[in-house]
């Protein structure tokens, strides 16, 4: 990773005195994700749905406080694809909640680079963006958020985007309330271990 030497473990993380927030985006479609499930012998479950490409885009951030290692989860839905403008809107909202220095760890996609992102960092000197290496989703704990959410919504068939939105918000709140599940998202990543 660029910059602050975040791979140095718990001691270096505390020394930084900054909130870490791992940010990533994902999309959820009305076409159901199918996972293996249980059913009585000879009664294969069927998912009946209309094939539609309607989707919701979602950006989330998994934060870690510098001293108590309290975990937080922030999210924002969008009805269209996510670009730099949406990422900046999300980061502004996160900065309203996190006091002091904030280090945002993001992937190398174009949505995290460009004029709008540079202007945002200039506007908020307490914000620092650090980029994961290219093609390394296994390092980002926020990928665990998407894995958990998609697993919870597997084999469901919402009728429309409003129903999908309600399902996503419900599951997101369940995950956000659980320190154990959020810690699991960090532990499933291949980041150098820094949690107590």
Q: Specify the overall morphology.
A: globular
Query: Roughly how much helix do the residues carry, as a percent range?
Result: 25-40%
Main sheet record: 5 strands, mixed
How large is the share of residues in beta strands? 15-25%
CATH topology, by name, is Nucleotidyltransferase, domain 5
- Which sequence of strands runs across the widest sheet? 3-2-1-4-5
Radius of gyration: 18 Å
The CATH class assignment is Alpha Beta
Please tally the helical runs, counting DSSP H or I stretches of 4 or more residues. 6
Structural class: alpha/beta
Low-confidence stretches: 1-11
Mean pLDDT: 83
User: How many strand elements?
Assistant: 5
Overall CATH architecture? 2-Layer Sandwich
Amino-to-carboxy terminus distance: 21 Å
Number of domains: 1
CATH superfamily: Ribonuclease H-like superfamily/Ribonuclease H
Report on this model:
The chain is an alpha/beta fold and 196 residues long. The protein is built from 6 helices and 5 strands; from the N terminus they run H-E-E-E-H-E-H-E-H-H-H. A hairpin with a 6-residue loop joins strand 2 (55-64) and strand 3 (71-78). It has one domain (6-29, 53-187): 2-Layer Sandwich (Nucleotidyltransferase, domain 5). A 5-stranded mixed β-sheet has the order 3-2-1-4-5, sandwiched between helices. It is globular, with a radius of gyration of 18 Å. The longest helix is centred in the last third of the chain and has 16 residues, at 161-176.
């Amino acid at each position: 990773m660029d910059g602050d030497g975040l791979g140095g473990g718990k001691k270096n993380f505390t020394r930084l005195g900054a909130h870490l927030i791992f940010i990533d985006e994902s999309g959820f479609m009305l076409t159901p994700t199918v996972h293996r499930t249980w059913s009585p012998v000879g009664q294969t479950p069927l998912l009946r749905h209309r094939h539609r490409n309607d989707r919701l885009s979602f950006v989330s951030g998994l934060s870690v406080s510098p001293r108590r290692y309290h975990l937080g989860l922030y999210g924002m839905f969008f009805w269209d694809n996510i670009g730099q403008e949406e990422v900046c809107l999300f980061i502004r909202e996160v900065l309203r909640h996190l006091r002091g220095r904030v280090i945002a760890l993001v992937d190398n996609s174009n949505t995290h680079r460009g004029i709008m992102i540079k202007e945002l960092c200039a506007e908020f000197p307490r914000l620092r963006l650090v980029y994961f290496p290219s093609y390394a989703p296994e390092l980002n704990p926020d990928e665990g958020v998407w894995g958990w959410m998609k697993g919870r919504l597997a084999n469901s068939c919402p009728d429309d985007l409003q129903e999908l939105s309600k399902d996503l918000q419900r599951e997101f709140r369940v995950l956000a309330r659980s320190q154990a599940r959020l810690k699991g998202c960090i532990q499933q990543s291949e980041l150098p271990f820094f949690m107590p």
